[in-house]
Amino acid sequence: MEKRAPYATRHEDSRGRYFEEAPSATRTPFQRDRDRIIHATAFRRLKQKTQVFVAHEGDHFRTRLTHSLEVAQISRSIARTLGLDEDLAETLALSHDLGHPPFGHAGEDQLDACMAPYEGFDHNAQSLRIVTRLERRYPLFNGLNLTWETLEGLVKHNGPLTGPDTPITALPIAFRDFPHLEDLELDQFAGPEAQVAALSDDIAYNNHDIDDGIAAGLFTVDDLMELPVVGDIFRGVRMEYRDLDDRMVTYEAVRRLIGLWINDLVDETRSRVKRLKPQSAAEVRALGEPLIGFSEALEGPQRALRTFLYSRMYKHYRVNRMRSKAKRVLADLFEVFLNEPQTLPPPWNAAAIREEGIGRARIVCDYMAGMTDTYALEEYRRLFDTSALT
């Protein structure tokens, strides 16, 4: 284990929480944030929210929960190697998908379309809304009262939110509803741990989608052989273990690919550290470019893999059929709840009945974004199946 890097985020210097609390006697502020995420209702719901497939398609495909755990494992490994705060990196990895609605990207696209007259829907903004407003577990405040560093990383893990061409007024309304948004230094990059979590997400879903796509029969090991780097790894495993079946070949190849991506990120980041010489997490934020990143040599193979997965997996006709059904389910549910708020369960119905226009739409959106795949399908059955009048 490497000693703490000078550019790591220091939990001793945390900017604190917006609602003052006594410190924990046994945990650092970031460990406490991690524990609050794990105990949150929104985190538990990730077990039945999907990445690509609908939850009932099979027990072995990844869900948002298993994906988040895989991202957390990768984040901790990279943070440990680079001398960063492992707990903060893990916290941001575990929380990065909290705002996703049911049915993966199809669900987000449809909810955004439903909310188009009401300033839209954005899953990153919804994550902030969940941890600052919608989770209600404490008597003195709404939300989880996370540290500044966790909120900043959650909001900006993909890069700055504002700039010369992007004023704060252009951000999704779920961001702008947070009263301390401007305090999060929106025109700068996130700290190093948040950058690690963001790229760990890329490592996890790119490589694990290979596993899920083969398991689902959307493409084969042979189909991957023409891809740069990925094909080389699969060929190497087949040559080394000539008697392995394709499932075992896939497991071994994906394991090696994850290691390859991690090692490239670590090497490239160390090269950038030598060039940029940041001496604090604040300097990392102010660099004007990411400190954490992949090498140019890996960018081409990564783009080729994404292109392959887009055409052979995300746009496969079987996935398109699931997306089509999922969108119809959410569109119909949104229309009923918006026009007949008394059909919402308590306490959502009372709040929606009191509101009109964008206020009511946002309540409906919050309710639907929190649904799991299975719950959304069950709500649809209850509302539209006339043989189930219960």
Which tags fit this structure?
390 residues; mainly alpha; Hypothetical protein af1432; 3 domains; 17 helices; globular; dGTPase activity; hydrolase; dNTPase_2; Deoxyguanosinetriphosphate triphosphohydrolase-like protein
Topology:
Blueprint: H1 29-38, H2 41-45, H3 64-82, H4 86-95, H5 104-114, H6 123-134, H7 148-156, H8 173-176, H9 192-215, H10 230-240, H11 246-276, H12 281-285, H13 296-314, H14 317-339, H15 348-354, H16 357-369, H17 373-384
Helix pairs in contact: 1-4, 3-4, 3-9, 3-11, 4-7, 4-9, 5-14, 9-11, 9-13, 10-11, 14-16, 14-17, 15-16
Keywords: Hydrolase
GO molecular function: dGTPase activity
Protein name: Deoxyguanosinetriphosphate triphosphohydrolase-like protein
Task: Describe the protein.
With 390 residues, the protein is an all-alpha fold. It folds into three domains: 27-101 and 121-184, Hypothetical protein af1432 (Orthogonal Bundle), CATH 1.10.3210.10; 200-317, no CATH class; 319-384, no CATH class. Helices cover 58% and strands 0% of the residues. It has 17 helices and no strands. It has helices at residues 29-38, 41-45, 64-82, 86-95, 104-114, 123-134, 148-156, 173-176, 192-215, 230-240, 246-276, 281-285, 296-314, 317-339, 348-354, 357-369, 373-384. The longest helix is centred in the last third of the chain and has 31 residues, at 246-276.
